[in-house]
Amino acid sequence: MALRARALYDFNSENPGEISVRENEMVTLYCEQDIEGWLEGVNSRGERGLFPASYVEILKSPAPSYGGAPDGYQGSRYANVPGAPYEPPYRSHVPPSYQPSQGSDDDWDDDWDDSSTVADDPGGVGGAYPDYDGNGPAAGMNYSVSTSSMPRGGSAPQAKSSATVGRNLNRFSTFVKSGGEAFVLGEASGFVKDGDKICVVTGQYGPEWQENPYPFACSIDDPTKQTKFKGMKSYMSYKLTPSHTQSQVHRRYKHFDWLYARLVEKFPVISVPHLPEKQATGRFEEDFISKRRKGLIWWMNHMTSHPVLARCDVFQHFLTCSSTDEKAWKQGKRKAEKDEMVGANFFLTISTPAAPLDLQDVESKIDGFKTFTKKMDDSVLQVNATLSEFARKQIAGFKKEYQKVGQSFKILSQAFELDQQAYSAGLNHAIAYTGDAYDAIGEYFADQSRHDVDPMLDLLALYQGHLANYPDIIHVQKGALTKVKESQKHAEEGKMERPQADGIRERCNIISFATLAEMQHFHQIRVRDFRAQMQQYLREQIGFFQKITSKLEDALRKYDSA
Amino acid sequence: MALRARALYDFNSENPGEISVRENEMVTLYCEQDIEGWLEGVNSRGERGLFPASYVEILKSPAPSYGGAPDGYQGSRYANVPGAPYEPPYRSHVPPSYQPSQGSDDDWDDDWDDSSTVADDPGGVGGAYPDYDGNGPAAGMNYSVSTSSMPRGGSAPQAKSSATVGRNLNRFSTFVKSGGEAFVLGEASGFVKDGDKICVVTGQYGPEWQENPYPFACSIDDPTKQTKFKGMKSYMSYKLTPSHTQSQVHRRYKHFDWLYARLVEKFPVISVPHLPEKQATGRFEEDFISKRRKGLIWWMNHMTSHPVLARCDVFQHFLTCSSTDEKAWKQGKRKAEKDEMVGANFFLTISTPAAPLDLQDVESKIDGFKTFTKKMDDSVLQVNATLSEFARKQIAGFKKEYQKVGQSFKILSQAFELDQQAYSAGLNHAIAYTGDAYDAIGEYFADQSRHDVDPMLDLLALYQGHLANYPDIIHVQKGALTKVKESQKHAEEGKMERPQADGIRERCNIISFATLAEMQHFHQIRVRDFRAQMQQYLREQIGFFQKITSKLEDALRKYDSA
């Protein structure tokens, strides 16, 4: 007798290998043991395939046994009998974190479209990605390095306001969504543990995040292709080795994506580095794998360099939780998803220097920074476009021109070879060699951008992500400033109690400290990164031209004996 | 009373500053003294200007004095009175060697269109340039490096044939025009002085011209702009310094052109190097002057390298006759133009090794050489086209791409300069410097072809000239071979006396020795020239890439302190 299960929710198959089930539909299982959250079975329409284990309830009453199944579980009539060597299917609060599909070319969405991890859960914790209408979770977050108006997720309560200073009527405002408004209005509350405290200190150049006392880095090795469902599905797994633990963990892109969503939700005025961009096709191609890995290395660099992000619990969980201890992983995952100190409450965790900032001075600095980021964004866009075009020209045009020169020398040497005089043989050989040298130089040109332009473009992409974050960060700070001005006016007019107005000012002061600290951090990593990358670029270019020179010197030597 | 003259011939003015005169027309002269063959006066229509002194006859009877002439000759009533401090106008047998014009932009034809020096002389020695119909002198010779079917001038008698072996009915045939036919048929005759003897010897690689026992070279310095007619006309004068005399002479392009015509006329189976090509405009522009000078240097190199050409009288006259001794120059000029040992008679001057050549072997070698030159011509054409395009790309595309990269770095540095943090100033400066470096590299690319491609193109142009000569040279030898075959047949059939047939074979043997010697010479200079030029090209390219490397290293160092 086979095992049977009843569907708890509708599930619409979206990929080959999956089957759809309707709520309350009965399905026959081949095996009660789920494989990474998926079960295989036959639905009421006789379709056979995979569906999420979390969408069904396995029935305890025996069903006709599935004859001929090759695995060792066919004798277990019940899934959850004690003593069974396997855990019962894990009924998570979240639906499966990927949409399964068959074959490696079709399932590109596997690694990518599962930012719905939390949001799609009909009965889950919810609220991670309120859509723009505030009507509930949205499926996935679409970020792109070229979108500068990216909405930032937030979990700010949309509840009633009791404050005299009016609420922002624009529910789409980042100030509202980020929780900035709620915090400034004094609506945020939560218990801040000592370990959660985030300090802004006054450094040489103004407010800055307190340095991470335990700095670390994290290497990302070339990913390996993993398969599951007997090879039906495959994905890339990256080996991460944090320097502070020296313990390897394996993570998939979807784990990065999940982490990213948590960070964006938690930190309203911190520029969370964007992940390398999506790619629909060629996900297992060497070039793409290498490019994404480099993007992830840069991303990791910015994560570990950031005094706040580097230390936060969810990132540490991501870096240190054993890949094989699924239970610990899910525990940490749920803890992060239930974290209360996100959005508005995040500001509660910030402690600042005692002396408050001059808000007028802050405003002027913020305006200057806004101008700076706009101009930097424009110029990064231009450098990006120029270098991309330059790389394209080197790969196509430059290569072609040098190879045409090489070809013409080769043709000349072939003509000369018709002369069989002994004294001309050496020259013929030397000219043929020169032709080959120019052919090789053409290849050098085609190959070069991998070494200099591409890494520069990776850096620029990361910065384009940051620059796309800043309008929202600035918006939160400016929203807070506006609230201060309004409240001062109301207090002067007697419409608001002075202590309430002072509270708004104090909270705005905290947001301002955090914003200035974040700006300072941005400038510091910018100078560090661009110095290093420009040096790297020039070193590669120098090496490139030296390689050409050396090839030509080889060719020249051939004439010595010609 | 002014001086008067009567026109001897029609003269049609073709340039500003000149006036037309009709035969027998009376003209009033301002001065009886010609300036380089030109007189200034007023014709019967009252037009004032220059006309050729040789076209008029100065009348001895006094004419009304020209009042108010500012020069010092108005008191001299007679041009030719003894004791006058000026020589009488020189009545040359040749018309003026240029068509005068006013201003330097209009008179480009001055330097170029005067190969009519001899040919246009109505009563002169004539015959230098019979036109294709054999109807008399043609005005000028149009040669071009890209024309491979260039007709070669010749002064072969077109007279009756008494030989049994038939004359070639194609009067345009190079074999006929070069004098090859006449020589083979035994019609050439002339007294060969010992000094005129040209020896073909058997060298390591077969027949070759006897080496020049007094090898020399000749430098060509940057030309200077000369003016005459009170600045109305200008031309470029080149300073030549032959190493065997160490005496400077000044020559204009028209002198080279005249010399070239003499050489082509004289040597039927020698590849006379072509002069650098004509240019209609920009004759005084620095680029053109420099380019033409380089072309002339190459030309001179091939002249002095050639054992026969280097030693011939007309070339020695050109190299050694004092520029200021007009009389000696004209004497040598007339002697060259009257040289009888040209064309058919040139072959009389050749002495060969005693053992005759195997004519079948010769034929096979000639055929091989024909294939070789054809293939070399094709490949030179291709190298020429490729390098020209490569240079164009470097001047336009490559420069633009590198400068766009430079520009984008400069824009980035400008954006960064909006951040006034002390720690970012060094980086901003370094990036700006990098931008400038790429801008400079763009200029390097644009400038580079002057140093490598252009000299290569100059060499290729010279060789294209030689390769254009060879079909005619081969044609002469093949014509002679055909005559041998015909005569052998006729002798066998009893239609020709054996001694006559043997004479044809002997004379064909001479032509064959000369042709093989010339081929050998071609291979030797080809290997020498292409080896040197390829080395030069590679050295320049190496220097170019080293210059780029060094510029980038400068830029990289700026980051050390950034």
TrEMBL record, chains A, B:
Spell out the InterPro entries in the cross-references. AH/BAR_dom_sf, PX_dom, PX_dom_sf, SH3-like_dom_sf, SH3_domain, SNX18_PX, Snx9_fam, Sorting_nexin_WASP-bd-dom
Binding-site positions, a 1,2-diacyl-sn-glycero-3-phospho-(1D-myo-inositol-4,5-bisphosphate): 252, 254, 292
Query: How would you describe this protein's topology in the membrane?
Result: Peripheral membrane protein
Q: Where in the cell is it found?
A: Cytoplasmic vesicle membrane
What residue spans carry the Acidic residues bias annotation? Answer: 104-114
Q: Which GO terms describe its cellular component?
A: cytoplasmic vesicle membrane; plasma membrane
Q: Main site of residence? A: membrane
Q: Which residues form a coiled coil?
A: none
Q: Quote one Gene Ontology molecular function term.
A: phosphatidylinositol binding
List the residue ranges of the region (Disordered). 70-129
Per the record, the domain of life is Eukaryota
List the SUPFAM superfamilies: PX domain, SH3-domain
Q: Which family does the UniProt entry place this protein in?
A: Belongs to the sorting nexin family.
This one is known as Sorting nexin
Q: Which organism is it from?
A: Scleropages formosus (Asian bonytongue)
Tell me the lineage of the source organism.
Answer: Eukaryota, Metazoa, Chordata, Craniata, Vertebrata
